[in-house]
Amino acid sequence: MKRMLRAVAGLVVVPGLMLTACGDPQTDDPKKPATKATTEKGTDATTGTQAGGTLPKGEPDVNGDGKVVIGVMSPGDTKDKGYYQSFVDESQKYADENGWKLTIVDKINPAAAVQQARNLCRQRVDMVAIGASELKDALSASTEPQCKGVTWYISGGMGVKQTPEFTQSLDFINESLYAAGYAAGLVLKDNGGKKAGYITGPDLDFARAVAKAFKAGIKAVVPDAELVENYTGDFNDSGKANEAANAQLSQGVKVIYPYLGGATDSVTRIANKKGVPALTPGTDRCGDASGVKYAISVVFSPGAYFAGALKDFKAGTLRMGVAREWHLGKDPVPYVKLCDPKGDQEAQLKKLTEDIGSGKLNVDDAVAGKQ
Fold first, then answer.
1. Quick one: 98 and 29 in the same domain?
2. Compositionally biased, Low complexity: which spans (predicted)?
């Protein structure tokens, strides 16, 4: 779930009021995308334009003050080396390339989202970019006087109720996490294991939906496999996550998924010491140079989706009131990657991805146990 203003561009990081995190954008109904004015499928993470909706005047300098300022809002730590950081990295990349200014507000308590959005508008930003749908309430500020003319983007995950004031990206829990489970199942089958571990933060509906899809994918390869689940209550608390990891490893878990934010690497280091393969929660970290080793990269990072929106914004073609969908097996992201595949594992995972993308495998039915 790799990063990277020099010269003219500026960077300001403002901590939020209270630490809260979530390792995934997919927080609404896992079965049903939100109602939306127009939906467009993404064709490339860095290309493609939108249709429908309304086009704000003057993009990217929508307020006409001679500079482009992007305000980034994140519920998590934007230095987590993973999901949240990927969103900021894309912002930094475009700011660096185009001489834009970036203002980052991270670790935002969802209860403070609206006020933080108002504060960004008062700083005359041209765009408010929201990194995860936990902060969707911030969108209510889009119709307030101080935010008049500002463009709005949110990494919507499974979807935020669409209005004319913003644009969003959508991805789908069952596609990515079923494939992640399938890859984990291939690893389990190879090492003779029957137990997989899943560690996440708060016990929320989307976290349960992730576990359900992940488990279904595993059992497609190892039918009698068991998924051990732990909900620590905090995506960033390494102490709680490490305790859960040690407990799972003592129960014989042979592959582990730290579906976390800032605590991800801490759990993976423990798994590395025990020789147990781990998966990433959102970003590609195969061959990571930090010394933490991952066996499977599960890539649904909000930065990859945001790249498409930023390109449109720069070109003056980013429309409000529309959503862009990203599908496994159809678009460059999301995807699942075995870092060190053995035998025909890579071919098996590729076929699964193609079957999901083509519709040959109805992944929603598979997760629901109907296939």
1. yes
2. 44-54
